[in-house]
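Case study 2.
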Amino acid sequence: MPDGVRPVPGFLKKLIPLLILTALAGYIIVAVRKPSVPPELAPEQLTLRDGMSVLAPTPIWEELEAYQETIDRETFLGELGKIYSAGEAWKETIQIEEDHAMIAADTENKLKLRFAKPGVAKGPIKRYWRPVSEMPPAGNREKRPLSGVKIAIDPGHIGGTWAQMEERWYQIKNKGTQVKEGELTLTTARILKPMLEKLGARVWLVRRDLEPITPRRPEDFKALATTYSDSRIRWNSEKFFYRYDEIRMRAWHVNERIKPDLVLCLHFNAEAWANPRNPTFVDRNHLHLLINGTYSKGEFAKQDQRLHLLKRLLQRIHPEELALSTSVAEAMAKETGLPPWTYDTANAKSVNDSPYVWARNLLANRVYTCPVVFLEPYVMNNREVYERIGAGDYEGEKMVAGKIRKSIFHEYATGVANGLANYYRKTRR
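Prediction:
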C-alpha cells in the first residue's frame, strides 16, 4: 500500500455497495420523474404546405386503424352532418358507402374506415379520457361528485408583457385599469382550481404564470413569416408564435402528459370598438360556450383538421362535450345573469335547445383530444365589466358598479364549478 494511504475500515467496505445502490436508485427515480421535453417543430412545419394548417404536424392517418368497426354507419353519418359539418361541406373529402367510408387522407391516398354492424361495434374505444359512464362510483356523490375526475384548466391567452402583442389588451385614454385577458383568465383559474379539488377533482393548470408555454419566440418564425407575406413580417411572426405555436404546445402538454377527462378553456369576450383610436364602452354584455364543430369546406380540405375531426368523432367526444357544456352554460347563466350571444354567421350553429351553446371549429377546441368546455363570458369592453375588473378579486360581496355582488372572478369560477358538479351528480353512479 503506498505511503500516506490509509486502509478502508471494514464497516465502510460493507457500506460502500449500499451507498452505490442508493445513489443509483435515486438517479433512476429522478430519471423516471423528470418531465419529458416538449418536441421541437419538425422542419416541414416551418414551411407553408398545401392542404395543411399553419404549424400543423404531419397527420398520422394510421391512428384511425384503431377505430375500425367501432362505429355504425348511422351514428357516423349523423354526427358528421349534425355537428361537425357546415352543411354538406364534408362530401368532397368523405364518401359514405353501405358498410364503410372512404376518407381522403391526402391528394393521392384514401383510407377505408369500416363501419360496425348495428349493435355489434368493437370495443373498448381507444382514448385517454373517460366519459362519465366509464368512471367508478363517486362515493359521496353529493359532496364530492368530481371524485377522481382529471381536469386541465387552460387559462386563455398569455397576458403580462405579451398582452399587447396578443391584441387582448386595452386601456381607456391611456390611464386607469389595464385590461389584459391573459391575466383575467389566470386569476379565474387560480380561484377555480381549489373549488374543483374540494369537489374531488384532480386539477392541473396548463399555464401557471404570465409566460408562454412554448420555448419559441416570435423571432423563430421570421423566416416563415417572410414566405407567408412580403409585408407585415413582424406581425405575422408574432401571430405564428402566440396564436398557433402556443396553443399547439399547450395541446401537446394536455394530450401527452396530463391526459385529462376534460379541458376547461377559460376566456373573456370582447366586442369591436366604434373607433379603436378613441375607444368608448359598448353596451352589450353576454355569455356563450363553444363545442367543436361546423367545419367549413375549406377546413375539411385541410388534412390535419380532417384527421382531428375524425378522431373526435370516433372517440365519441361530442356527446360528452355537449352535455358538459350545456350543464356549465346553465349554471353560468344562473350565476352571472348574462343573456346568450347569438351567432348569425356560417361558421357556427346551434346544436341543442340551449341558446348558450354553439358548435364552432377553433384551434383550441380541435387539438385537445378530449371533451373541451370552451367559455366566453363577459364583454371586457363593457363599462360594467370594466368596473368589475378594476375592483379586482375579493372575498364575499361588496358594492361594485351599482350592485352588491361577488368579484367577477369568483362569480365566473363558481358558475363553472356548479355546472360541473351538477352534471356529475346527475349522471355519475
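Residues 54-114 form one domain.
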